[in-house]
Design brief:
- This protein is an all-alpha fold.
- The chain contains three helices and no strands.
- The chain has a domain of 41 residues.
- It is rod-shaped and about 115 Å long.
- The relative contact order is 0.06.
Length: 75
């Protein structure tokens, strides 16, 4: 169009065209990168070893019964 009308001459813009609003461009929101949380390592609690009493020294219930029998025989 400019070539036909000439570079120096500006065409008259009708008022309807001027009243049109420009479309606003939507800004794209930048996504924030989530920081990964470091997991805390749980410390394992050490179990205290229970000292066995004289009665519990034998492993299991059977030995307890046997030890009682032996003690009664001696008396």
């Amino acid at each position: 169009m400019r070539c036909v009308m000439g570079a120096k001459e500006k065409p008259e813009i009708p008022s309807e065209v001027v009243l049109k609003k420009k479309k606003k461009k939507k800004k794209k929101k930048k996504k924030k990168k989530k920081k990964k949380k470091k997991k805390k390592k749980k410390k394992k609690k050490k179990k205290k070893k229970k000292k066995k009493t004289e009665r519990e020294k034998g492993s299991g219930k059977q030995n307890l019964v046997v030890s009682r029998k032996v003690s009664t025989d001696l008396v």
